[in-house]
């Protein structure tokens, strides 16, 4: 389901640098990875391309399960998992070229 080409190490490093100062925009709570949460992640990715997701107070999904499932259901890519925070990326080709995140080639 993940049709995007995988990110190179250089691209992940670049995205980690961009994501460093970001605050989480979506929280996965006691409901786990519900349809509402997936819709919120999709909407945030369409707008930002690179987002942080925080996993809080849940026993429905572990951070490792979230790191596997979130990119799969949202057709995005996991850039980093630190603690209970995911950094994920999905290019939005509907955005103007100058508004898209420009990844390094290699």
Write structural notes for this entry.
It contains three helices and four strands. Strands 1-2-4-3 form a four-stranded mixed beta sheet, sandwiched between helices. It has one domain (9-91): 2-Layer Sandwich (Translation Initiation Factor IF3), CATH 3.30.110. Helices cover 35% and strands 21% of the residues. It is globular and about 40 Å long. With 106 residues, it is α+β, with helices and mostly antiparallel strands. The protein has helices spanning 9-19, 35-48, 63-74, and strands at 24-28, 50-55, 77-82, 85-89.
Q: What attributes characterize this protein structure?
A:
106 residues, alpha+beta, 21% strand
Describe the SSE topology.
Elements (H helix, E strand, L loop, with lengths): L8 H11 L4 E5 L6 H14 L1 E6 L7 H12 L2 E6 L2 E5 L17
Parallel strand pairs: 1-2
Antiparallel strand pairs: 2-4, 3-4
In short:
With 106 residues, the chain is an alpha+beta fold. It contains 3 helices and 4 strands, in the order αβαβαββ.
Number of β-strand runs: 4
Assign a percent range to the helix content: 25-40%
CATH homologous superfamily title: YhbY-like
How many helical elements?
Answer: 3
Number of domains: 1
Report the CATH architecture. Answer: 2-Layer Sandwich
CATH topology: Translation Initiation Factor IF3
| β-strand amount | 15-25%
Largest sheet report: 4 strands, mixed
Alpha-carbon distance between the two ends: 24 Å
Q: What structural class do the secondary elements suggest?
A: alpha+beta
Q: What top-tier CATH class fits best? A: Alpha Beta
Mean pLDDT: 90
User: Strands of the largest sheet, in order across it?
Assistant: 1-2-4-3
Over all CA atoms, what is the radius of gyration? 13 Å
């Amino acid at each position: 389901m993940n049709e995007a080409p995988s990110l190179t190490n250089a691209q992940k490093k670049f995205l980690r640098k961009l994501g460093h100062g970001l605050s989480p925009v979506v929280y996965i709570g006691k409901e786990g990875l519900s349809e509402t949460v997936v819709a919120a992640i999709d909407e945030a990715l369409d707008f930002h391309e690179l987002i942080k997701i925080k996993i809080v107070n849940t026993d429905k999904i572990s951070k490792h399960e979230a790191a596997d499932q979130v990119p799969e259901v949202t057709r995005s890519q996991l850039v980093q998992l630190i603690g209970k925070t995911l950094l994920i990326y999905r290019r939005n080709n509907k955005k103007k070229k100058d508004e898209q995140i420009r990844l390094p080639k290699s």
